[in-house]
Amino acid sequence: MSKSKSEYETASADRALYAGLIRLHVLHHAVEGPIFGLGMIEELGRHGYRISPGSLYPLLQGLEKKGYLRSSEQRKGKSLRRMYRATPLGRKALTASKSKVRELFHELIEGD
What average pLDDT values come out for the chain (112 residues) when binned by 10 residues? Predict the structure, then answer.
């Protein structure tokens, strides 16, 4: 059964809303320690986000381009894995975002 045009538009709007949350989630984990793409896809999946490599890797690259993450390649056996870590700017941005998230949480969950 195929999706209607309105179902696709709703899914697209949902993705746009969640994009900021996903970025914050990624940054949170990068502050805690080194992350890599597949590991983040799995972690985000545990929280109900379905994100493909084709969406996550450009997101990681964008966070790196903005200076929030720094990446390096690490060999694990025969494979080469790109690891991402939060930069001081990324740590500062996450700290600033926490107060905004708390305020939003209060309004959305705890009431007016």
Answer: 53 73 96 96 93 94 98 89 97 94 87 65
Tell me, yes or no, whether 17 lies in a domain.
Answer: yes
69 in Cβ contact with 84 (< 8 Å): yes
If we measure between CA atoms, which residue out of 32, 37, 44 comes closest to residue 91?
32
Sign, CA dihedral 11-17-19-22, equals negative
pLDDT at residue 16, rounded to an integer:
78
User: Residue 52 belongs to a domain with what CATH number?
Assistant: 1.10.10.10
For the chain, how many structural domains are there in total?
A: 1
Half-sphere exposure of 21 (CA within 13 A, CB side): 15
The angle that helices 5-32 and 37-46 make with each other, rounded to 10 degrees, is 110
DSSP 3-state percent helix, strand, coil across the chain (nearest 5): 65, 15, 20
Which residue range(s) make up the domain with 31? 8-108
Both tokens of 84, joined, read 């991402």
